[in-house]
Amino acid sequence: MTLDEIKALVRTVPDFPKPGILFRDVTTLVGNGPGFAAAVERMAEIVKASGADVIAGVEARGFIFGAAIAARLGLGFVSIRKPGKLPVPVIAIDYALEYGTDTLEVDPEAVGEGHHVILIDDLLATGGTALAAVELLRRAGAKVEHALFAIDLPDLGGAERLRTTGITPHALLDYPRH
Length: 178
What we know:
Helices cover 33% and strands 33% of the residues. It has helices spanning 3-8, 27-30, 33-50, 61-73, 128-139, 158-163, and strands at 11-14, 22-25, 54-58, 76-80, 91-97, 100-106, 116-124, 143-152, 168-174. The strands form 3 sheets. It has a 5-stranded parallel β-sheet, with helices on both faces. Helix 3 crosses helix 4.
């Protein structure tokens, strides 16, 4: 399946969550078996080339892509969770959103000291969530040099923000002029 065919499976929802936003909905891609398999296969190639030995996924849609790629490659998967979801002591980070703050948590024992971790999420916009997740993983002892997204919205600057912190961003699809 070509990248254009995969991209055609992503639904665009206008004016969500607010007027003027074009929401890129990956649920239609994930719901298409051949399309999802093709996306996972292409993303798995990027993970292999990165040299990562562990995949970390951001709740919730990062779990979908990250776990599928981890299973495909036989790698471990680490969950970056929203607050209160992990039953063990965690390390946490607060980060800024467009209209407030949020928190991410990880079980520090899920990340081995010095493991090469690639962060995976469904979408890269401004990079705030990804930067917080990378900082959290680094605090847990991981070496994080790559992040992979199903979709990048390059005009929102997230990839450049990641580069400034030593992260090489990768994306399967991009939507310029978001």
